Structures are given as C-alpha cells and as structure tokens.
Amino acid sequence: MVEGKTESPGPKKRGPYISSITSRSVNLMIRGVVLFFIGVFLALVLNLLQIQRNVTLFPPDVIASIFSSAWWVPPCCGTASAVIGLLYPCIDRHLGEPHKFKREWSSVMRCVAVFVGINHASAKVDFDNNIQLSLTLAALSIGLWWTFDRSRSGFGLGVGIAFLATLVTQLLVYNGVYQYTSPDFLYVRSWLPCIFFAGGITMGNIGRQLAMYECKVIAEKSHQE
C-alpha cells in the first residue's frame, strides 16, 4: 500500500498590491510626494504672512496668484522639503543612530505649530532693532531643536540647511528675483537663517515620522503573510 505524498505548502506569494506597498522605492516616492505637498502648503501660508507685513517684495508682474506669491516659490519649497524630509532618516540609518526622541504624530504637529509661530513672530512682532529679533528667533529655533529633536545629526543638518538656503536666497536677491525690505545681512534679513534652521528641523521630524510609519506598515504586512 503506497501512502500518498503530501506536499508541504510553499511560501505564500505576495500579491501585486502588497508587493508594491512593501517596495522601498515606491515607499520612498510616496514619502517624497507627501513631503512635497506639505512643503508647498507651508510655503503658501508662511509666504503670505511675510508679504502681508511687507517683509518680502515681489515685482508687480510676478504677483499672479490668489496668495500674492510668485509661482515658483511653493514648488521650490516643496522640492526642498522633500529632499530634507528624505535626507534626515537616511542620515540616521547611515550613522546607525535611529532617532527615537518623541516619535509620535502629536509631537510632530506641535513642532509644525512652533515653526509656524516662529515664522509668524518674524513678521508680526516689532522689536527695537534687528539684532534683538535675530537673537530671539535664534533662541526659539534652538529651543525647537532641543524640544523636538535633540540629535547631533539633526542639529548639524539644520545648520547646513540654514547656510545653503541663506546663500541661495542671497543669490536670488542679488539677481533681482525679489527683495527684502530693510536688509541688514548683505541682501537679506539677519534672522533668515533662524527660519531656515527651524524649517529644516521641522521637515526632518516629519520625514522621520513618515519613515517610521513606513517601517511599521511593512512589518505588519510581513507578519500577516
């Protein structure tokens, strides 16, 4: 009597949907798109605050949108936000130091609120001179890093982002693309690096949280399979 052979079930094949979701390249693209639109939204809101207080001035023929902003500002800010948000978790993995300080969405939203508040203060609060305003915003920006980040990589990237962004802005103003009222730091305002630093920390936190959410989704999908 020959016993029938029972074949052991092989590994389950992933469906096309699961394969696409767990693909690192697809997840990277999704995170980049999300960061891009977040950057565009913040650029529209924050630039509107600056223009309402006449901190930045664009030529009349450039002001064409309902937000009274040059059309190229939101896409540029969105692209920069995507690069920064993807760079932060990448640097964390490269250094082998995963960022675990206050890793929840509520903390990220508070960080965004503080960043908007810092930018709002630069446009709304009146100081006796620009030095006082710059020192105040510098303290607030470092306080934002200490409250929501506290990583050496985050601080270093924030400083690098502030330097590069300020340099690019100087070149744009020098070439007449737009201008700042009452510039006191070459062609721009002295507090501008503080805004860029705080913005880099904020987008880095959003990027880290999205990367952590991606890891959780992949782990859950793998466990279900």
TrEMBL record:
Q: Which residues form the signal peptide?
A: none
Which GO terms of type biological process are on file?
cellular response to insulin stimulus; cholesterol biosynthetic process; SREBP signaling pathway; SREBP-SCAP complex retention in endoplasmic reticulum
Keyword Membrane in annotation: yes
Regions that span the bilayer: 28-49, 69-88, 131-148, 155-174, 186-206
State the oligomer form and interacting partners: Interacts with SCAP; interaction is direct and only takes place in the presence of sterols; it prevents interaction between SCAP and the coat protein complex II (COPII). Associates with the SCAP-SREBP complex (composed of SCAP and SREBF1/SREBP1 or SREBF2/SREBP2); association is mediated via its interaction with SCAP and only takes place in the presence of sterols. Interacts with RNF139. Interacts with RNF145.
Q: Which UniProt keywords apply?
A: Cholesterol metabolism, Endoplasmic reticulum, Lipid metabolism, Lipid-binding, Membrane, Steroid metabolism, Sterol metabolism, Transmembrane, Transmembrane helix
Q: Name one Pfam family in it.
A: INSIG
What's the chief localization of this chain?
endoplasmic reticulum
Q: What is this protein called?
A: Insulin-induced gene protein
